[in-house]
Amino acid sequence: MNEEPYLNCPICKQIDLVRKARAIYETDFSTTEYTEILPTPPGTNWAPLPVSRQSGGPSFLARRLSPPPKPTLKTETSASAGYVTWLLTAAVGFIILFSSSSASGASPALVCLGLFLVSPIIASIVQKNSVPQNIEQIKKENKDTLERWQRALHRWDQCYYCGRDGVVFIRGESNAVSPEMMPTILYQSTT
């Protein structure tokens, strides 16, 4: 038999119990059979009725060999929403400041409150357009995160599982890890 050596498990050097991780994830399901007792209908003398049911889902191993989850990306609106909130607060501050200063006998507390609420305008001037910079930074972080996940997804598609040793490996690479540690080989750099 002519076996391709790069598909051999790096631990046992065998190929007979090696399966692609994707195939296990997509095809291994476990089902559980159980009996459920249905309640008797109200107003009847019927005996409770046992009913056989089945429930199922991915096997324990299939769940462990699942692909890396798609990351949650930051929204650009969070940076601009904060900025808009600051501007609205400043607008309220201006209203309080001008209404208190125009009234005779202005309360120092109202003037202080107005100045405090106007401070976001001063802060935004000092920061010099930080919102566009934050949005660009969020876009860059999202792009980097998505590219990292796509590389990990590509590596997951190259993973194999050895049923004899219970390890996951990528063909042609010498390291093998348990299914729980699979993210370590998915996210390791391949330069």
State Rg: 31 Å
Fraction in beta strands: 15-25%
Give the count of helical stretches.
6
Oligomer: single chain
User: What is the average per-residue confidence, as pLDDT, rounded to a whole number?
Assistant: 78
Shape field: flat
The helix/strand series, from N terminus to C terminus, equals EHEEHHHHEEEH
Q: Are there runs of 5+ residues with pLDDT below 50, and where?
A: none
Tell me the distance between the termini. Answer: 34 Å
**Overall strand count:** 6
Approximately how much helix is present in the residues? 40-55%
Structural class: alpha+beta
Across the major sheet, the strand order is 1-4-5-6
* Largest sheet, strands/sense/barrel: 4 strands, antiparallel
Indicate the topology.
Elements: E1 18-20, H1 21-27, E2 29-38, E3 49-58, H2 60-64, H3 77-102, H4 108-127, H5 130-156, E4 159-162, E5 167-170, E6 176-177, H6 182-186
Antiparallel strand pairs: 1-4, 2-3, 4-5, 5-6
Helix pairs in contact: 3-4, 3-5
